[in-house]
Each structure stands twice: as structure tokens, then as C-alpha cells.
């Protein structure tokens, strides 16, 4: 049995977890999830049927981890301590990992859905406004190579995925700080390996749809 069971769909946030698995050098078995027919094993591990979900088979126990940001950090803890933050990097690491999973994700989703935060209610929204949230991330990444400075950490898998997708799908503005940071992340071997696998899976799915 592989060390990890990885429930995913290539057209999902599962791409984040796959990149993290490759950065961590983890041995995993993928289980592809059909949105209309979710496997019982996934629903047992994660009752809401959400991907990515990983199951770590370790020490006679099965440890279920959901939520892409949590998966990233867990994999660093379990398999790649060199991708964890050092003592003086922890503040930046956790701040921007959770900023991207929280306020940034919320701001992008709200904008995509056309949800407007009423005047005077920005504090209640959690992210303030799309412009302020994006501006905060731009300022941070524009002043350093990676989230924690000049060293790549597992936080960059999550933050880098948000920026990569944001530029690809237009949910983030094409600003120099984002483009340069995305290029650094795209140069990683783990990124390339994960994208190659998901790219092939997506192409196969699209070909199957056309032939049906």
C-alpha cells in the first residue's frame, strides 16, 4: 500500500495537493473522483465528498486531512521538514498561508460571484475588499522572492497555486509582482511533475467528452 491515498479530480484544487505531494516526495496512490459518482471510500473519509482529500496510512492508523492549505502543511510536517519554516520564518509562513486560504480566497470568490460588500460592512466581510486584499499580497510578494523571503517553503505551494490560477483565469490582475512570483514557482520540479500529470488527465477527460 502507498503511504498516502489521494482523492482528487484534475479540474479542482486537487492540483494544489498533487504539487505538494511531489514537493514532499510522498508515495501516493491517486483515486480519481467523478463528481456525479463519488466513491464510498471518499465519503467515508470526508462526508462532504470534497477534494482534495488525503489519507495518510501511518503507524497502523489512517489520518485523514482535508483542505488544501492544511494538506500542504501536513505533508511538510510528515515528509519534507526542509519545506517547513524556520524559527524566524513562522510568522510569515502561517500569516500568508492562511491569508491566501481565507481572505484572498473569499475576496476572489466574492468577485467571481458578483457579490458586492455594502458600504460600511467591509469589516464584517473578513477580507475587507478585493482591492485591499489583492494589494496586500502584491506588496508582500513584490518585496521578496518567496513568502518567507529568499527560500521556497510549503506555503509557496498554496500561495503560488492561488497566484498561478489567478493569472491564468483572470481572477487576479496581471501585475509584475504576481507574474514574477508565479514564474519562480513554475520553475519547481514538483510543480512541473504535478502539472504534467493533471494536464494529461484533463486532456483525456476532454477527449472522452468529445467522443461521447
Question: How would you describe what is shown here?
Answer:
There is one protein chain. The chain is an alpha+beta fold and 212 residues long. It has 2 domains: 4-82, Glutaredoxin (3-Layer(aba) Sandwich), CATH 3.40.30.10; 84-190, Up-down Bundle (Glutathione S-transferase Yfyf (Class Pi), Chain A, domain 2), CATH 1.20.1050. Helix content is 55%, strand content 10%. It has 9 helices and 4 strands, in the order E-H-E-H-E-E-H-H-H-H-H-H-H. The chain has helices spanning 14-23, 40-45, 68-79, 90-113, 122-125, 130-141, 155-169, 176-186, 189-211, and strands spanning 4-8, 28-32, 53-58, 61-66. Strands 2-1-3-4 form a 4-stranded mixed beta sheet, with helices on one face. A hairpin with a 2-residue loop joins strand 3 and strand 4. Helix 1 (14-23) packs parallel to helix 3, helix 1 packs antiparallel against helix 9 (189-211) and helix 4 packs antiparallel against helix 6. The longest helix is centred in the middle third of the chain and has 24 residues, at 90-113. The protein is globular, with a radius of gyration of 18 Å. The two termini are 34 Å apart. The model has no long low-confidence stretch (mean pLDDT 96).
